Amino acid sequence: MFDLAGKTRSGVHAAYTRIVLTRFGVAFILLTLIHCFAQGAIQASLYVGDARALSLLENIVRTADLPASSISWLQRHGSGNYTLSLCTNLPIAEGGTESCVTVYQSGAEDWSGAVVSTKNEDLAIRDLTANMFVRRTLKVNDISASLNATGGIEGVNVTYQSTGDDHGNVLLSNQCVRSLVYADEAMGASKKEDAALLGLQFWLLILSFVGILYSSIPQILAVICTRVLSTAWAAYSIYHTRRHETLFRILFTEPDTPCNFNLFPTHFKTQMALAIANLVLNVTALLFTVYLGRLLIKNFKEYTIQRVGPPQGILRIYRLFLTIFVLLQLSVFFLVTVVGLWTTWLLNGPLLHISLHTPIYKALFIFTIVSLPPWIIMGLYAVRRELRSLMAGFLFISFIYIACWTIMFYSQVYRWTFITWMFFACMTVASFAVLVLTTVFGVLCWLNFGKGLAEYLDAEAALAKDNFTPEVFSEDQTATKPKDVLSDQNMHSFGTVKEDINWDPYDLDRAPIIVIGLQDQLTPRVEA
Question: 110, CA 20 to 30 Å: which among 1, 148, 228, 473?
Protein backbone atom coordinates (compact mmCIF):
# COMPACT_ATOMS: atom_id res chain seq x y z
CA MET A 1 0.00 0.00 0.00
CA PHE A 2 2.89 2.32 0.87
CA ASP A 3 4.64 1.54 -2.42
CA LEU A 4 1.45 2.23 -4.36
CA ALA A 5 0.98 5.59 -2.66
CA GLY A 6 4.62 6.46 -3.25
CA LYS A 7 4.45 5.50 -6.90
CA THR A 8 1.27 7.53 -7.27
CA ARG A 9 2.87 10.61 -5.74
CA SER A 10 5.96 10.10 -7.89
CA GLY A 11 3.84 9.76 -11.02
CA VAL A 12 1.83 12.87 -10.22
CA HIS A 13 5.00 14.82 -9.51
CA ALA A 14 6.59 13.64 -12.76
CA ALA A 15 3.45 14.60 -14.70
CA TYR A 16 3.37 18.03 -13.05
CA THR A 17 7.05 18.56 -13.84
CA ARG A 18 6.49 17.75 -17.50
CA ILE A 19 3.48 20.05 -17.76
CA VAL A 20 5.25 23.04 -16.18
CA LEU A 21 8.46 22.42 -18.13
CA THR A 22 7.71 25.55 -20.17
CA ARG A 23 5.30 28.41 -19.62
CA PHE A 24 3.88 27.75 -23.09
CA GLY A 25 2.79 24.29 -21.99
CA VAL A 26 1.13 25.70 -18.88
CA ALA A 27 -0.67 28.36 -20.93
CA PHE A 28 -1.77 25.77 -23.48
CA ILE A 29 -3.30 23.53 -20.81
CA LEU A 30 -4.97 26.38 -18.93
CA LEU A 31 -6.52 27.92 -22.05
CA THR A 32 -7.65 24.51 -23.28
CA LEU A 33 -9.25 23.83 -19.92
CA ILE A 34 -11.05 27.19 -19.90
CA HIS A 35 -12.32 26.76 -23.46
CA CYS A 36 -13.37 23.19 -22.78
CA PHE A 37 -15.75 24.17 -20.01
CA ALA A 38 -16.88 27.42 -21.67
CA GLN A 39 -17.65 25.74 -24.99
CA GLY A 40 -18.98 22.72 -23.17
CA ALA A 41 -21.46 24.94 -21.33
CA ILE A 42 -22.60 26.48 -24.62
CA GLN A 43 -22.96 23.11 -26.31
CA ALA A 44 -24.87 21.79 -23.30
CA SER A 45 -27.24 24.76 -23.52
CA LEU A 46 -27.75 24.14 -27.23
CA TYR A 47 -28.39 20.48 -26.49
CA VAL A 48 -30.97 21.26 -23.79
CA GLY A 49 -32.82 23.67 -26.08
CA ASP A 50 -32.95 21.23 -28.98
CA ALA A 51 -33.89 18.35 -26.67
CA ARG A 52 -36.80 20.36 -25.23
CA ALA A 53 -38.10 21.24 -28.71
CA LEU A 54 -37.65 17.65 -29.88
CA SER A 55 -39.59 16.30 -26.91
CA LEU A 56 -42.55 18.57 -27.74
CA LEU A 57 -42.56 17.57 -31.39
CA GLU A 58 -42.24 13.86 -30.62
CA ASN A 59 -45.22 14.07 -28.25
CA ILE A 60 -47.35 15.79 -30.90
CA VAL A 61 -46.41 13.34 -33.66
CA ARG A 62 -46.84 10.34 -31.36
CA THR A 63 -50.28 11.55 -30.24
CA ALA A 64 -51.44 11.80 -33.87
CA ASP A 65 -50.54 8.11 -34.33
CA LEU A 66 -48.77 8.55 -37.67
CA PRO A 67 -47.19 5.52 -39.38
CA ALA A 68 -43.85 4.61 -37.78
CA SER A 69 -42.15 4.71 -41.20
CA SER A 70 -43.18 8.31 -41.94
CA ILE A 71 -40.32 10.48 -43.22
CA SER A 72 -40.41 14.03 -44.57
CA TRP A 73 -39.22 15.15 -47.99
CA LEU A 74 -38.57 18.85 -48.52
CA GLN A 75 -37.99 20.08 -52.08
CA ARG A 76 -37.00 23.58 -53.05
CA HIS A 77 -38.12 25.11 -56.33
CA GLY A 78 -36.18 27.65 -58.34
CA SER A 79 -38.46 30.50 -57.28
CA GLY A 80 -37.57 29.98 -53.60
CA ASN A 81 -40.76 28.10 -52.77
CA TYR A 82 -40.87 24.72 -51.07
CA THR A 83 -42.90 21.55 -51.36
CA LEU A 84 -43.15 19.46 -48.21
CA SER A 85 -44.20 15.83 -48.57
CA LEU A 86 -44.68 12.94 -46.18
CA CYS A 87 -43.47 9.53 -47.37
CA THR A 88 -43.61 5.99 -46.04
CA ASN A 89 -40.69 4.90 -48.22
CA LEU A 90 -37.46 6.52 -49.34
CA PRO A 91 -38.00 8.91 -52.27
CA ILE A 92 -34.69 7.75 -53.79
CA ALA A 93 -35.85 4.12 -53.79
CA GLU A 94 -37.50 2.61 -56.85
CA GLY A 95 -41.15 3.65 -56.71
CA GLY A 96 -40.48 5.54 -53.49
CA THR A 97 -42.04 8.78 -54.67
CA GLU A 98 -45.34 6.96 -55.10
CA SER A 99 -45.54 6.61 -51.31
CA CYS A 100 -45.30 10.39 -50.84
CA VAL A 101 -48.21 12.71 -50.22
CA THR A 102 -47.80 16.48 -50.54
CA VAL A 103 -48.52 18.16 -47.21
CA TYR A 104 -47.86 21.78 -48.10
CA GLN A 105 -46.55 23.85 -51.00
CA SER A 106 -45.44 27.38 -50.26
CA GLY A 107 -46.24 30.09 -52.78
CA ALA A 108 -49.25 28.30 -54.23
CA GLU A 109 -52.05 30.74 -54.98
CA ASP A 110 -54.81 28.18 -54.47
CA TRP A 111 -53.72 25.94 -51.61
CA SER A 112 -56.98 24.46 -50.39
CA GLY A 113 -55.34 22.36 -47.73
CA ALA A 114 -53.53 25.13 -45.92
CA VAL A 115 -55.73 24.82 -42.83
CA VAL A 116 -57.92 21.86 -41.96
CA SER A 117 -60.16 22.26 -38.92
CA THR A 118 -63.71 21.47 -37.91
CA LYS A 119 -64.05 24.44 -35.56
CA ASN A 120 -64.10 28.06 -36.68
CA GLU A 121 -63.01 29.24 -33.26
CA ASP A 122 -59.83 27.22 -33.64
CA LEU A 123 -58.99 29.19 -36.77
CA ALA A 124 -59.36 32.43 -34.85
CA ILE A 125 -57.18 31.13 -32.03
CA ARG A 126 -54.47 30.12 -34.49
CA ASP A 127 -54.52 33.48 -36.27
CA LEU A 128 -54.33 35.27 -32.94
CA THR A 129 -51.56 33.23 -31.39
CA ALA A 130 -49.45 33.23 -34.56
CA ASN A 131 -48.92 36.96 -34.06
CA MET A 132 -49.25 37.25 -30.29
CA PHE A 133 -46.38 35.05 -29.20
CA VAL A 134 -43.70 35.80 -31.76
CA ARG A 135 -41.51 37.38 -29.08
CA ARG A 136 -42.89 35.63 -26.02
CA THR A 137 -42.14 32.29 -24.41
CA LEU A 138 -44.55 29.41 -24.83
CA LYS A 139 -45.03 26.60 -22.33
CA VAL A 140 -47.08 23.58 -23.36
CA ASN A 141 -49.11 22.14 -20.50
CA ASP A 142 -50.99 19.32 -22.17
CA ILE A 143 -51.12 17.44 -25.48
CA SER A 144 -54.09 15.21 -26.34
CA ALA A 145 -55.72 13.68 -29.39
CA SER A 146 -58.87 15.26 -30.83
CA LEU A 147 -61.36 12.57 -31.88
CA ASN A 148 -64.17 12.84 -34.41
CA ALA A 149 -67.64 11.26 -34.17
CA THR A 150 -66.36 7.87 -35.33
CA GLY A 151 -63.48 7.79 -32.84
CA GLY A 152 -60.79 8.63 -35.38
CA ILE A 153 -58.05 11.17 -34.69
CA GLU A 154 -58.75 14.46 -36.45
CA GLY A 155 -55.94 16.44 -34.86
CA VAL A 156 -53.98 17.18 -31.71
CA ASN A 157 -55.10 19.57 -28.96
CA VAL A 158 -52.28 21.61 -27.47
CA THR A 159 -52.92 23.49 -24.21
CA TYR A 160 -50.31 26.17 -23.70
CA GLN A 161 -49.35 29.03 -21.43
CA SER A 162 -47.34 32.05 -22.48
CA THR A 163 -45.43 34.51 -20.34
CA GLY A 164 -47.66 35.72 -17.53
CA ASP A 165 -51.22 34.53 -17.14
CA ASP A 166 -52.04 34.20 -20.86
CA HIS A 167 -53.09 30.70 -21.81
CA GLY A 168 -55.14 28.99 -24.46
CA ASN A 169 -55.80 25.93 -26.55
CA VAL A 170 -55.07 25.26 -30.20
CA LEU A 171 -56.11 22.37 -32.44
CA LEU A 172 -53.35 21.20 -34.74
CA SER A 173 -54.93 19.43 -37.70
CA ASN A 174 -53.68 16.12 -39.05
CA GLN A 175 -52.16 17.98 -41.96
CA CYS A 176 -50.27 20.24 -39.54
CA VAL A 177 -48.99 17.25 -37.58
CA ARG A 178 -47.82 15.55 -40.78
CA SER A 179 -45.87 18.66 -41.69
CA LEU A 180 -44.30 18.69 -38.21
CA VAL A 181 -42.52 15.43 -39.03
CA TYR A 182 -39.94 17.57 -40.85
CA ALA A 183 -39.46 19.73 -37.74
CA ASP A 184 -39.11 16.59 -35.63
CA GLU A 185 -36.34 15.26 -37.87
CA ALA A 186 -34.54 18.64 -37.93
CA MET A 187 -34.56 18.96 -34.14
CA GLY A 188 -33.46 15.34 -33.74
CA ALA A 189 -30.47 15.95 -36.01
CA SER A 190 -29.55 19.15 -34.15
CA LYS A 191 -29.68 17.36 -30.81
CA LYS A 192 -27.29 14.67 -32.02
CA GLU A 193 -24.94 17.30 -33.43
CA ASP A 194 -24.87 19.08 -30.07
CA ALA A 195 -24.02 15.84 -28.29
CA ALA A 196 -21.18 15.08 -30.71
CA LEU A 197 -19.70 18.58 -30.41
CA LEU A 198 -20.01 18.46 -26.62
CA GLY A 199 -17.98 15.25 -26.59
CA LEU A 200 -15.45 16.90 -28.91
CA GLN A 201 -14.54 19.49 -26.28
CA PHE A 202 -13.54 16.88 -23.71
CA TRP A 203 -11.73 14.81 -26.36
CA LEU A 204 -9.64 17.89 -27.21
CA LEU A 205 -8.91 18.44 -23.52
CA ILE A 206 -7.67 14.87 -23.07
CA LEU A 207 -5.61 15.06 -26.27
CA SER A 208 -4.02 18.34 -25.12
CA PHE A 209 -3.08 16.88 -21.73
CA VAL A 210 -1.51 13.84 -23.38
CA GLY A 211 0.37 16.03 -25.84
CA ILE A 212 1.88 18.23 -23.13
CA LEU A 213 2.50 15.37 -20.72
CA TYR A 214 4.50 13.31 -23.22
CA SER A 215 5.85 16.20 -25.30
CA SER A 216 4.02 14.63 -28.22
CA ILE A 217 3.95 16.48 -31.53
CA PRO A 218 1.20 14.26 -33.07
CA GLN A 219 -1.30 15.14 -30.33
CA ILE A 220 -0.65 18.87 -30.70
CA LEU A 221 -1.05 18.66 -34.49
CA ALA A 222 -4.25 16.64 -34.08
CA VAL A 223 -5.64 19.31 -31.75
CA ILE A 224 -4.83 22.04 -34.27
CA CYS A 225 -6.46 20.14 -37.16
CA THR A 226 -9.58 19.47 -35.11
CA ARG A 227 -9.80 23.10 -34.02
CA VAL A 228 -9.76 24.19 -37.66
CA LEU A 229 -12.65 21.86 -38.54
CA SER A 230 -14.59 22.79 -35.40
CA THR A 231 -14.28 26.50 -36.18
CA ALA A 232 -15.42 25.96 -39.76
CA TRP A 233 -18.52 24.12 -38.57
CA ALA A 234 -19.23 26.77 -35.91
CA ALA A 235 -19.27 29.39 -38.68
CA TYR A 236 -21.55 27.25 -40.84
CA SER A 237 -23.90 26.55 -37.92
CA ILE A 238 -24.88 30.24 -37.80
CA TYR A 239 -26.13 30.01 -41.38
CA HIS A 240 -27.65 26.63 -40.58
CA THR A 241 -29.62 28.02 -37.62
CA ARG A 242 -30.82 31.02 -39.62
CA ARG A 243 -31.95 28.75 -42.45
CA HIS A 244 -33.94 26.55 -40.07
CA GLU A 245 -35.59 29.61 -38.57
CA THR A 246 -36.64 30.75 -42.05
CA LEU A 247 -37.92 27.31 -43.01
CA PHE A 248 -39.95 26.98 -39.82
CA ARG A 249 -41.56 30.36 -40.49
CA ILE A 250 -42.38 29.44 -44.10
CA LEU A 251 -43.66 25.95 -43.29
CA PHE A 252 -45.37 26.32 -39.92
CA THR A 253 -45.90 29.91 -38.76
CA GLU A 254 -47.19 32.00 -41.66
CA PRO A 255 -50.98 32.42 -42.08
CA ASP A 256 -51.36 30.14 -45.12
CA THR A 257 -49.46 27.21 -43.58
CA PRO A 258 -51.15 24.03 -42.25
CA CYS A 259 -50.28 24.93 -38.64
CA ASN A 260 -50.38 28.73 -38.62
CA PHE A 261 -48.96 28.56 -35.10
CA ASN A 262 -45.51 29.31 -33.67
CA LEU A 263 -44.54 26.46 -31.37
CA PHE A 264 -41.03 27.87 -30.88
CA PRO A 265 -41.30 31.67 -30.50
CA THR A 266 -37.90 32.13 -28.79
CA HIS A 267 -36.04 28.92 -29.66
CA PHE A 268 -34.10 30.12 -32.69
CA LYS A 269 -33.23 33.50 -31.18
CA THR A 270 -31.68 31.74 -28.21
CA GLN A 271 -29.90 29.19 -30.39
CA MET A 272 -28.55 31.96 -32.64
CA ALA A 273 -27.10 33.86 -29.69
CA LEU A 274 -25.43 30.69 -28.43
CA ALA A 275 -24.15 29.85 -31.91
CA ILE A 276 -22.49 33.28 -32.22
CA ALA A 277 -20.88 32.90 -28.80
CA ASN A 278 -19.71 29.44 -29.79
CA LEU A 279 -18.09 30.81 -32.96
CA VAL A 280 -16.25 33.49 -30.98
CA LEU A 281 -14.88 30.89 -28.57
CA ASN A 282 -13.90 28.61 -31.46
CA VAL A 283 -11.99 31.41 -33.16
CA THR A 284 -10.12 32.37 -29.97
CA ALA A 285 -9.38 28.72 -29.25
CA LEU A 286 -8.04 28.22 -32.78
CA LEU A 287 -5.80 31.30 -32.52
CA PHE A 288 -4.19 30.32 -29.21
CA THR A 289 -3.89 26.68 -30.29
CA VAL A 290 -2.07 27.59 -33.50
CA TYR A 291 0.20 30.13 -31.81
CA LEU A 292 1.10 28.11 -28.71
CA GLY A 293 1.05 24.84 -30.61
CA ARG A 294 3.66 26.13 -33.05
CA LEU A 295 5.93 27.16 -30.18
CA LEU A 296 5.43 23.84 -28.39
CA ILE A 297 6.13 21.81 -31.53
CA LYS A 298 9.32 23.77 -32.07
CA ASN A 299 10.28 23.18 -28.45
CA PHE A 300 9.50 19.46 -28.62
CA LYS A 301 11.58 19.12 -31.78
CA GLU A 302 14.54 20.83 -30.17
CA TYR A 303 14.87 18.44 -27.25
CA THR A 304 13.54 15.24 -28.80
CA ILE A 305 14.14 15.08 -32.53
CA GLN A 306 17.62 16.57 -32.49
CA ARG A 307 19.03 14.96 -29.38
CA VAL A 308 21.44 12.83 -31.43
CA GLY A 309 21.11 14.65 -34.74
CA PRO A 310 19.60 12.17 -37.24
CA PRO A 311 20.50 12.50 -40.92
CA GLN A 312 18.06 13.96 -43.41
CA GLY A 313 16.92 10.54 -44.59
CA ILE A 314 15.79 9.60 -41.10
CA LEU A 315 14.04 12.95 -40.70
CA ARG A 316 11.98 12.35 -43.84
CA ILE A 317 10.88 8.95 -42.53
CA TYR A 318 10.19 10.50 -39.14
CA ARG A 319 7.77 12.94 -40.77
CA LEU A 320 5.82 9.97 -42.14
CA PHE A 321 5.88 8.51 -38.65
CA LEU A 322 4.44 11.73 -37.18
CA THR A 323 1.81 12.05 -39.91
CA ILE A 324 0.32 8.62 -39.34
CA PHE A 325 0.28 9.27 -35.59
CA VAL A 326 -1.71 12.47 -36.20
CA LEU A 327 -4.13 10.63 -38.48
CA LEU A 328 -4.64 7.88 -35.92
CA GLN A 329 -5.48 10.49 -33.28
CA LEU A 330 -8.06 12.03 -35.63
CA SER A 331 -9.48 8.62 -36.51
CA VAL A 332 -10.47 8.01 -32.90
CA PHE A 333 -12.94 10.91 -32.87
CA PHE A 334 -14.21 10.91 -36.44
CA LEU A 335 -14.84 7.17 -36.80
CA VAL A 336 -16.51 6.84 -33.41
CA THR A 337 -18.66 9.93 -34.07
CA VAL A 338 -19.81 8.83 -37.53
CA VAL A 339 -20.63 5.31 -36.38
CA GLY A 340 -22.50 6.67 -33.36
CA LEU A 341 -24.49 9.19 -35.39
CA TRP A 342 -25.45 6.68 -38.05
CA THR A 343 -26.43 3.96 -35.60
CA THR A 344 -28.58 6.17 -33.35
CA TRP A 345 -30.26 7.75 -36.39
CA LEU A 346 -31.04 4.33 -37.83
CA LEU A 347 -32.19 2.55 -34.69
CA ASN A 348 -34.19 5.42 -33.14
CA GLY A 349 -36.08 6.75 -36.13
CA PRO A 350 -38.39 5.83 -39.00
CA LEU A 351 -35.53 4.38 -41.07
CA LEU A 352 -35.59 1.33 -38.79
CA HIS A 353 -39.01 0.47 -40.24
CA ILE A 354 -37.85 1.08 -43.81
CA SER A 355 -34.40 -0.53 -43.79
CA LEU A 356 -34.20 -4.09 -45.14
CA HIS A 357 -30.62 -4.78 -44.03
CA THR A 358 -30.56 -3.56 -40.43
CA PRO A 359 -28.77 -6.71 -39.09
CA ILE A 360 -25.89 -6.06 -41.51
CA TYR A 361 -25.62 -2.45 -40.37
CA LYS A 362 -25.59 -3.56 -36.74
CA ALA A 363 -22.84 -6.10 -37.48
CA LEU A 364 -20.71 -3.42 -39.16
CA PHE A 365 -21.28 -1.08 -36.23
CA ILE A 366 -20.23 -3.72 -33.70
CA PHE A 367 -17.18 -4.73 -35.77
CA THR A 368 -16.00 -1.11 -36.09
CA ILE A 369 -16.39 -0.26 -32.41
CA VAL A 370 -14.81 -3.53 -31.20
CA SER A 371 -11.90 -3.49 -33.65
CA LEU A 372 -11.11 0.23 -33.42
CA PRO A 373 -9.01 0.18 -30.19
CA PRO A 374 -6.86 -2.80 -31.36
CA TRP A 375 -6.51 -1.15 -34.77
CA ILE A 376 -5.21 2.07 -33.21
CA ILE A 377 -2.80 0.20 -30.94
CA MET A 378 -1.57 -2.00 -33.79
CA GLY A 379 -0.84 1.06 -35.90
CA LEU A 380 1.05 2.85 -33.14
CA TYR A 381 3.22 -0.13 -32.21
CA ALA A 382 3.77 -1.34 -35.77
CA VAL A 383 5.04 2.01 -37.01
CA ARG A 384 7.05 2.79 -33.87
CA ARG A 385 8.79 -0.60 -33.67
CA GLU A 386 8.73 -1.48 -37.40
CA LEU A 387 6.87 -4.74 -36.83
CA ARG A 388 5.95 -6.04 -40.26
CA SER A 389 3.48 -8.70 -39.17
CA LEU A 390 1.62 -6.26 -36.93
CA MET A 391 1.66 -3.68 -39.71
CA ALA A 392 0.15 -6.21 -42.08
CA GLY A 393 -2.72 -6.77 -39.63
CA PHE A 394 -3.19 -3.03 -39.25
CA LEU A 395 -3.38 -2.47 -43.01
CA PHE A 396 -5.70 -5.46 -43.43
CA ILE A 397 -8.21 -3.98 -41.00
CA SER A 398 -7.79 -0.59 -42.68
CA PHE A 399 -8.73 -2.03 -46.05
CA ILE A 400 -11.74 -3.75 -44.45
CA TYR A 401 -12.88 -0.41 -43.03
CA ILE A 402 -12.50 1.31 -46.39
CA ALA A 403 -14.29 -1.48 -48.26
CA CYS A 404 -17.18 -1.74 -45.81
CA TRP A 405 -17.86 1.97 -45.48
CA THR A 406 -17.55 2.39 -49.25
CA ILE A 407 -20.13 -0.32 -49.82
CA MET A 408 -22.42 1.49 -47.38
CA PHE A 409 -23.06 4.08 -50.07
CA TYR A 410 -24.91 1.41 -52.00
CA SER A 411 -27.41 1.38 -49.13
CA GLN A 412 -30.40 3.58 -49.87
CA VAL A 413 -31.03 4.43 -46.21
CA TYR A 414 -27.38 5.41 -45.77
CA ARG A 415 -27.41 7.57 -48.88
CA TRP A 416 -30.67 9.20 -47.82
CA THR A 417 -29.18 10.07 -44.43
CA PHE A 418 -26.05 11.40 -46.16
CA ILE A 419 -27.91 13.76 -48.54
CA THR A 420 -30.45 15.04 -45.99
CA TRP A 421 -28.18 15.57 -42.95
CA MET A 422 -25.34 18.04 -43.54
CA PHE A 423 -23.47 17.40 -40.28
CA PHE A 424 -23.48 13.66 -40.87
CA ALA A 425 -22.27 14.19 -44.44
CA CYS A 426 -19.39 16.40 -43.29
CA MET A 427 -18.34 13.96 -40.58
CA THR A 428 -18.57 11.04 -43.01
CA VAL A 429 -16.36 12.77 -45.58
CA ALA A 430 -13.84 13.78 -42.90
CA SER A 431 -13.69 10.30 -41.37
CA PHE A 432 -13.36 8.64 -44.78
CA ALA A 433 -10.56 11.03 -45.80
CA VAL A 434 -8.73 10.39 -42.52
CA LEU A 435 -9.16 6.63 -42.94
CA VAL A 436 -7.81 6.61 -46.50
CA LEU A 437 -4.88 8.86 -45.59
CA THR A 438 -4.07 6.68 -42.60
CA THR A 439 -3.92 3.64 -44.85
CA VAL A 440 -1.79 5.41 -47.46
CA PHE A 441 0.73 6.68 -44.92
CA GLY A 442 0.72 3.27 -43.26
CA VAL A 443 1.85 1.75 -46.54
CA LEU A 444 4.53 4.44 -46.94
CA CYS A 445 5.82 3.76 -43.44
CA TRP A 446 5.91 0.03 -44.16
CA LEU A 447 7.97 0.64 -47.30
CA ASN A 448 10.50 2.54 -45.19
CA PHE A 449 10.92 -0.15 -42.53
CA GLY A 450 14.54 -1.15 -41.95
CA LYS A 451 16.00 2.20 -42.98
CA GLY A 452 17.12 3.29 -39.52
CA LEU A 453 14.12 4.98 -37.92
CA ALA A 454 13.51 2.26 -35.31
CA GLU A 455 17.18 2.25 -34.29
CA TYR A 456 17.17 6.04 -33.99
CA LEU A 457 14.02 6.09 -31.86
CA ASP A 458 15.38 3.27 -29.68
CA ALA A 459 18.57 5.23 -29.13
CA GLU A 460 16.52 8.28 -28.21
CA ALA A 461 14.48 6.30 -25.71
CA ALA A 462 17.56 4.69 -24.18
CA LEU A 463 19.31 8.03 -23.73
CA ALA A 464 16.24 9.56 -22.13
CA LYS A 465 15.73 6.55 -19.85
CA ASP A 466 19.34 6.67 -18.64
CA ASN A 467 19.06 10.42 -17.93
CA PHE A 468 21.61 11.15 -20.61
CA THR A 469 22.35 14.85 -20.86
CA PRO A 470 20.72 15.67 -24.19
CA GLU A 471 23.46 17.65 -25.78
CA VAL A 472 22.36 18.96 -29.14
CA PHE A 473 24.40 17.73 -32.09
CA SER A 474 24.40 19.26 -35.53
CA GLU A 475 24.00 17.19 -38.64
CA ASP A 476 27.79 17.01 -39.13
CA GLN A 477 27.90 15.20 -35.76
CA THR A 478 29.84 18.06 -34.14
CA ALA A 479 28.87 18.09 -30.49
CA THR A 480 27.90 21.27 -28.72
CA LYS A 481 29.61 21.42 -25.39
CA PRO A 482 27.41 21.58 -22.31
CA LYS A 483 29.07 24.80 -21.26
CA ASP A 484 28.12 26.32 -24.62
CA VAL A 485 24.56 25.22 -24.16
CA LEU A 486 24.40 26.82 -20.75
CA SER A 487 26.33 29.94 -21.66
CA ASP A 488 24.81 33.36 -21.13
CA GLN A 489 24.58 34.17 -24.82
CA ASN A 490 22.35 31.11 -25.35
CA MET A 491 19.91 32.11 -22.65
CA HIS A 492 16.42 33.15 -23.73
CA SER A 493 13.22 34.10 -21.97
CA PHE A 494 11.78 30.70 -22.87
CA GLY A 495 12.66 29.37 -19.44
CA THR A 496 15.08 29.59 -16.53
CA VAL A 497 17.88 27.41 -15.27
CA LYS A 498 17.35 25.98 -11.81
CA GLU A 499 20.41 25.60 -9.56
CA ASP A 500 20.45 23.49 -6.40
CA ILE A 501 23.31 24.73 -4.18
CA ASN A 502 22.76 21.81 -1.77
CA TRP A 503 23.23 19.16 -4.45
CA ASP A 504 25.75 16.47 -3.53
CA PRO A 505 27.25 14.72 -6.61
CA TYR A 506 28.05 11.64 -4.46
CA ASP A 507 24.47 11.24 -3.19
CA LEU A 508 23.35 8.26 -5.29
CA ASP A 509 19.82 8.25 -3.82
CA ARG A 510 19.05 11.75 -5.04
CA ALA A 511 17.12 12.25 -8.28
CA PRO A 512 19.47 12.93 -11.18
CA ILE A 513 19.90 16.31 -12.79
CA ILE A 514 18.47 16.42 -16.31
CA VAL A 515 19.77 19.19 -18.53
CA ILE A 516 17.80 19.85 -21.71
CA GLY A 517 19.79 21.93 -24.16
CA LEU A 518 17.85 23.70 -26.88
CA GLN A 519 19.08 25.04 -30.20
CA ASP A 520 18.30 28.36 -31.86
CA GLN A 521 18.96 30.40 -28.72
CA LEU A 522 16.34 28.61 -26.64
CA THR A 523 16.86 28.44 -22.90
CA PRO A 524 18.05 25.14 -21.45
CA ARG A 525 16.06 23.63 -18.65
CA VAL A 526 17.57 22.03 -15.57
CA GLU A 527 15.37 19.81 -13.43
CA ALA A 528 16.40 18.24 -10.16
Answer: 148
